[in-house]
Amino acid sequence: MRTVPETYLAGEDDLPAVAALAAEARDDSPTGAQLGAQETDRLLEHLSVLLAAGGHVLVAKLDGQVVGVVLGRVVAAYLFAQHASLYLDMLFVAPRARRHGVGHALLRAATELAAQHECHDIYSAPVPGNRGVQRFLARLGFAPAAGHRVASVAALQRRIAAEAARDGAPAGRRSARGGLEDLIARRRRARSVMESGPIDMRPVGGGAPSRRRPAKAG
Questions:
Q1: I need a surface site. Which of 17, 65, 66, 142 has the fewest CB within 10 A?
Q2: Does the predicted TM-score (pTM) go above 0.70?
Q3: CB contact at 8 A, 115 and 108
Q4: How many other CB atoms sit within 10 Å of the CB of residue 76?
Q5: Strand order in the sheet with 85-93
Q6: pLDDT digits (tens, 9 = 90+) for 20-44
Q7: By three-state DSSP, how is residue 218 classified?
Q8: In this structure, what are the phi and psi dihedrals at residue 53, rounded to the nearest 5 degrees?
């Protein structure tokens, strides 16, 4: 008889097992070195902060052991979104427990959590490089939504300073008013082209020679 996974919202007592799974997820990814620290104490600290800030940790148990986890945050409606969403920071099932319905059970619990908070959408950020999770989400209807770009603070500061110096203005002192005026001017130029109709491409003063009508005989 196949064991049915048990899912529930984790508490403080479950966090050590969740931290161990998070470390396992890091090792399971080809880009694991980019995912941050693996030390259990640091992972426990992050998980405690997530719970204290109103985040959600869903776990799945199989045969009495925690074998799957979802870390989620409810993102309220904001300027570019009219409705709340559930954002899944991590979805991971231990390799030994895969193909036992654990992933489906976790997402079922996540959809129930989203419905409780009146979320319209669920966003997922799979562990980088984990193609198995990518395929799993795609089968369940998750589609690409947007691409993230990342830059370190130090690198971004250097690049902004370099571009500001190139443009002849001290870093951090470029006029916001000047940038706005430049944007307005460019929009006006574009609008004037669109409203003026076809553009006469003939050189000024160098149009095609006119045909002179022959003088009528007196």
A1: 65
A2: no
A3: no
A4: 10
A5: 6-9, 56-62, 65-75, 85-93, 121-124
A6: 998 888 777 665 444 455 577 888 8
A7: coil
A8: -90, 10
